[in-house]
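for the writeup, i need someone to sanity check this before i put it in the appendix. the sequnce is what the collaborator sent (i think, or maybe the updated version? ugh). structure was predicted straight from it, no edits. if anything looks off just tell me and ill rerun, i have time this weekend
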Amino acid sequence: MVQCNAAIGAVWDKWRPLVTSGPTKGQRRDQPVLAVEDGRLTLRIGAGRPPRGIHTPLRRLASDGTRLEPHWKHDAWVHGAVPALRAVIDGFLQQLPPGVGPAA
């Protein structure tokens, strides 16, 4: 989890995404943080907001239930965080012994 959050942090530092509407428009977006809480993977965005239970940090089921989409559509997440997280996950998978992992 530490490597995943470090990857997100590096993207947030590089892209410096801003809120585009609402009362905090123009302020920097809160950095998402991944955690395992009560045995579930969660994604937390901002202080005071409840964590969101997720299956994978890469994507979620779209509201129409027919396809997968990123958790957010802004560039810092789609073009920055998702590829960085994918690289971290791929690195973990390469370290697994033969016969262990998703293809096993």
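The chain has a mean pLDDT of 92. Residues 75-95 form the longest helix (21 residues).
thx in advance!!
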